[in-house]
Amino acid sequence: MEVVIVPTERVGSVGADIVGSLVRRRPESVLGLATGSSPVAMYADLIRRHRDGELSFADVRAFTLDEYVGLPADHPQRYRNVIARDFTDHVDLAPNAVHGPDGLAADIAAACTAYEQAIEDAGGVDLQVLGIGTDGHVAFNEPGSSLASRTRIKTLTRQTRLDNARFFGDDVEQVPVHCLTQGIGTIMEARHLLLLATGRAKAEAIHQLVEGPVSAMWPGTVLQFHRHVTVVVDDAAASRL
Ligand code: GLP
């Protein structure tokens, strides 16, 4: 595991360097995209590089990590809409090149299986972007998640719903209770994991991720078993290392 500690304002550009060099080297890359605030600066940097003519995503395919269950198709916090707004609508990804778990599926189990199959059919994920929750969750794999888990429905913890209430008018009751998420086992199959975190609220989760014993109670710790992980953090997120 490589841990890169940089000033807060450089986390996005260091992440964009890693994504950019992959996409230039392998234009048909399969990217795994995370939502949440952590990668927003990186996406902004990638959009700028695309607009400057440095980067094309025309042959890239992308898979998002997770999705709330039951949010209406046009809800602004539906992760499909979030990733479009933060990144994919602003670059030249082909129509239908972005896939996400279907939080509106009538048959949730079948939708999860189909999602896993779509990732496999694409040849797997080359580079998976990740954030981390304050309680150590990765995607929506909350503490206690099986470290071998696959894409499935999960119940969000109260802590995650409180953390995400800021996106729902600060009203935790508006935050969905269920989500679909790639499993830890699914995420671990990506060939390179790029985890971004900023701020003191993430310091304990980053400490556990890098230095803690591997435990389902801190799901991020399983990344210690991955062969190619890059963690890009600012000084505050690194303050407990
Ligand atoms: C959210 C998402 C995760 C994200 C994490 C951290 O609930 N499901 O994919 O990485 O929690 O979010 P943020 O980057 O906003 O702190």
Descriptive overview:
Strand 2 (30-33), helix 2 (40-51) and strand 3 form a beta-alpha-beta unit. The chain contains seven helices and ten strands. By secondary structure, the protein is α/β, with parallel strands linked by helices. It has a seven-stranded parallel sheet with strand order 1-10-9-6-2-3-5. The protein has a three-stranded antiparallel sheet with strand order 4-8-7. 30% of the residues lie in helices and 17% in strands. The protein is globular and about 45 Å long. Bound molecules: 2-amino-2-deoxy-6-O-phosphono-alpha-D-glucopyranose. 2-amino-2-deoxy-6-O-phosphono-alpha-D-glucopyranose is lined by residues 34-38, 65-66, 131-133, 139-140, 160, 164.
Main traits of this protein?
30% helix, 241 residues, Rossmann fold, 7-stranded parallel β-sheet, 7 helices, binds 2-amino-2-deoxy-6-O-phosphono-alpha-D-glucopyranose, 3-stranded antiparallel β-sheet, alpha/beta
